[in-house]
UniProtKB/TrEMBL annotation, chain A:
The lineage of its organism: Bacteria, Bacillati, Actinomycetota, Actinomycetes, Micrococcales. It catalyses: thiosulfate + hydrogen cyanide = thiocyanate + sulfite + 2 H(+). It comes from Brevibacterium jeotgali. It comes from the Bacteria. Residues 1-18 have a biased composition (Polar residues). Pfam families: Rhodanese. This is Sulfurtransferase. InterPro entries: Rhodanese-like_dom, Rhodanese-like_dom_sf, Thiosulfate_sulfurtransferase, Thiosulphate_STrfase_CS. PROSITE patterns: RHODANESE_1, RHODANESE_2, RHODANESE_3. The keyword Repeat applies. Residues 51-158, 188-309 form the Rhodanese domain. GO terms for molecular function: thiosulfate-cyanide sulfurtransferase activity.
TrEMBL record, chain B:
This is Cysteine desulfuration protein SufE. Belongs to the SufE family. It comes from the Bacteria. Pfam families: SufE. InterPro entries: Fe-S_metab-assoc_dom. PANTHER family: SUFE-LIKE PROTEIN 2, CHLOROPLASTIC, SULFUR ACCEPTOR PROTEIN CSDE. Residues 19-147 form the Fe-S metabolism associated domain.
């Protein structure tokens, strides 16, 4: 039986919700408290579902060689730099490029993707966010990523799967729902909450790049006026897993005063750490409208005459 | 300013560059992984004193490097030894270190200082790794050359 299709809030189409889905991981009470418990799975769930039909494990890392050095058996690799980004324009691949990539990885449109990676799942969340731009319906993160899988002494292999190419449909990328561009961010100042998830030193303008990271070329330091500082790591535990729903609610709703039913734009340096926060707000807390400004500081910090605030205060919207 | 018109790379680096250039696109990361796997461990005198090594903040993961120079009558003929420390969870950085170690360890001061700054871009790795990530290798090379200048008295 061919699954019927229906419109997807992020564009494209998804399989009908009556079609059989890979069940959610219900083993962890922490997951059950999240707004979308079907968006996250445990390492144990992954270990139990390596052979499950319709499940594709995807590794996405900052380090381009980490997958080759050893990965979860059967996992395919997707590299943000060489595969998700357009090689010329600063943008993501288009619908055709995405369909080719998915096909080459052996991924079908109705497959359940389990994404994991290094750095507390920054790049896994980034990959999930890009998959969502193309309306791939069922994408989940493995809580804790590589760090937890390794800490538990689980198996890695260097053997690469040989995916059978699929007929992945060409779906237009929909940038209108979860992606923000500079003009929209500039208009949002003073109207829509902005959150800056970089380190405190980057927020104040003491430095233009991450501590211990290379200078990636922002001419000015500081933050977008009115943006509140919430470093991404506040949403993560030391073992790379996400904090509990209670902790996240306290952080973003009680302490920061964000509204789950309003618009929010998150940014960082190039959009990877803010993808982590996007995942937390969108799926773990179930906010209605969260956008990731992927141009982030490497765009804002170089643009002529955009307003910037330095120091620890959020600052005010410039007078029109 | 095409790379092909440049003089051959010094030390063992040209041979490494030739190997990468001859490899298929899908083999490039496998070769880099071999360099990562084969990066020698630190000798005890440095393993016990990691503070003697210099960090390379241009890399996205922790990497430390130290160059030793065995003097010769002519400073440019001194022999350079290179030692690196990088964790296994940073295989790309280890691979870059492995390339520099294999290409330059045991070579002369003159050879090490003659490595052009754009060397990382001449490894045919730009597409497989991305230029941004290759910046890390430039950072290592810069620090090695500065240490060699300081320790040999030879000008760059």
């Amino acid at each position: 039986m061919l699954p019927t299709t229906q419109p997807n809030p992020y564009g494209g189409t998804v399989t009908d919700s009556t079609a059989p889905r890979v069940p959610a991981d219900t083993s962890d009470p922490k997951f059950a408290a999240y707004a979308r418990p079907d968006r996250i799975v445990s390492t144990q769930w992954v270990a139990d579902n390596l052979e499950t039909p319709g499940v594709v494990i995807v590794e996405s890392d900052e380090d381009v060689l980490l997958y080759e050095s050893g990965h979860i058996p059967g996992a395919v690799k997707i590299d943000w730099h060489t595969e998700l980004n357009d090689p010329v324009t600063r943008d993501y691949v288009d619908g055709e490029g995405f369909a080719q990539l998915m096909s080459a990885k052996g991924i079908s449109r109705d497959d359940t993707l389990i994404v994991y990676g290094d750095k507390s799942n920054w790049w896994a969340a980034y990959a999930m966010w890009v998959f969502t731009l193309f309306g791939h319906d069922d994408v989940r993160l493995m809580d804790g990523g590589r760090q937890k899988w390794e800490a538990e002494g689980r198996e890695y292999t260097r053997e690469k799967p040989q995916p059978i190419p699929t007929e992945y449909p060409v779906v237009d990328r929909d940038d209108s729902q979860i992606r923000a561009f500079l003009p929209e961010v500039r208009d949002a100042i003073g109207d829509i909450p902005l959150i800056d998830v970089r380190s405190p030193e980057e927020y104040t303008g003491e430095r233009t790049h991450m501590p211990a990271y290379p200078e990636e070329g922002a001419l000015r330091g500081g933050h977008i006026p009115t943006a509140k500082s919430v470093p991404w790591a506040k949403a993560a535990n030391d073992d790379g897993t996400f904090r509990s729903a209670d902790e996240l609610q306290k952080l973003y709703l009680d302490d920061l005063g964000l509204q789950a039913d309003g618009d929010i734009i998150a940014y960082c340096r190039i959009g990877e750490r803010s993808s982590h926060t996007w995942f937390v707000l969108e799926h773990l807390l179930g906010f209605d409208s969260v956008k990731n400004y992927d141009g982030s500081w490497t765009e804002w910090g170089n643009v002529v005459r955009v307003p910037i605030v330095t120091g620890a205060e959020a600052g005010e919207a410039p007078r029109a | 300013m095409t790379d092909q018109t440049n003089a051959p790379l010094p030390g063992g680096l040209q041979e490494i560059a030739d190997d990468f250039a001859a490899a298929a696109q899908n083999e490039l990361l496998e070769i880099l992984l071999e360099f990562s796997d084969e990066l020698p461990a630190l000798p005890d005198r440095y393993a016990d004193h990691p503070e003697l090594l210099e960090s390379v903040p241009e890399c996205q993961s922790p990497i430390f490097v130290i160059a030793e120079v065995e003097p010769a009558d002519d400073p440019k003929d001194g022999t350079v030894s290179l030692f690196f420390s990088a964790p296994p969870e940073s295989p790309t950085t280890r691979g870059f270190a492995g390339i520099l170690q294999e290409g330059l360890d045991g070579r002369t001061v003159g050879e090490v200082l003659a490595v052009p700054a754009d060397f990382p871009l001449r490894l045919s790795l730009t597409k497989a790794v991305s230029p941004l990530r290759l910046n890390g290798m430039s950072g290592m090379l810069t620090r090695i050359q500065r240490q060699v200048v300081e320790k040999s008295g030879q000008q760059a």
